[in-house]
Amino acid sequence: MRLSILDQAPISSNQTPRDALLESLQLAQAGERLGYTRFWIAEHHNLAGLACSSPEVMLAYIGANTKTIRIGSGAVLLPYYRPYKVAETYNMLATLFPDRIDIGIGRAPGGSAEATNALSDQFLQQVWDLPKSLMELLHFIYNDFPSDHEYAKVQAAPLPDIAPEPWLLGTSKKSALLAAKTGLSYAFGQFMSDNDGKDIIKQYLDHFKPKRIENQPNVILTVSVICAETNEKAEEIALSSLLWSIQKEKGEGTKGVPSIQEAIEYPYSEEEQQKIEKIKQKMIIGNPLEVKQKLIDIQASYQANEIMLVTITHSPKDRLTSYQLIAEAFM
């Protein structure tokens, strides 16, 4: 099974943003040592507790300090940007780090309404126009505009020997069908979706139309996972992430991921306890053997080619241990 890492660069309550970003690098380096296929880092804006607003900056830093693991965005929030500039940026990365760059494309705002307005005057219109922007981006990446197109003589230089691999990310049937129509690989964010992922991925596979000879349907399923030596330890570690989800929903959690002790001592209401149980239903929490079996089952159930793991803990050591235990379970 191919396993990969999605990093949201979470800031723990005892960390600075710089601490969190340095931990992201260490996680990418550990992922490379452990045999993970790719490392993606997410883009967020004005969200307390998440450190990465510019994946392209972090990817340059991570690429320079790793050697083999594929690295990419999870995702570039395309409605904020002109496709030409995105293509230039990721072509630059692909030139520096040959055959290692992924460019994941998303349409979500990735932050507060105020941040969205600060970034773009026409975000909703650009979301509506995403299919057009996506096609423009692909033409720039592959340098294949029709000869009569207004950008036919415009290159997103430098042109790498191997183009960055484009992916479309989403949680809906709409994103799946767009990925299928454009012949792109598709990453479904199961960890952040209440939709029926199995049906959405089936829609992608059923409607996939290759646009290039090398195109084949390809699915990443992204799941939230916390693994520890025992089930009890994993459940305890998961409390930090679960409490943080509750706090963020209430407009709290501005100090970052709380400690396990804070999570244990927190006075949960009955409604909050019910919300936590609902969140846990979308997570995989347990010891290495149980986590391995659940990942095998979910891969088969969703028809995914690859599983991408997102793990948020208060302690960076617990996060690294989780990824290590899972990698070792699959060796």
UniProtKB/TrEMBL annotation:
Pfam families documented for this protein: Bac_luciferase
InterPro entries membership: Bact_Lucif_Oxidored, CmoO-like, Luciferase-like_dom, Luciferase-like_sf
Domain Luciferase-like: 1-300
Family: To bacterial alkanal monooxygenase alpha and beta chains.
Protein name as annotated: LLM class flavin-dependent oxidoreductase
Organism from which the protein derives: Metabacillus halosaccharovorans
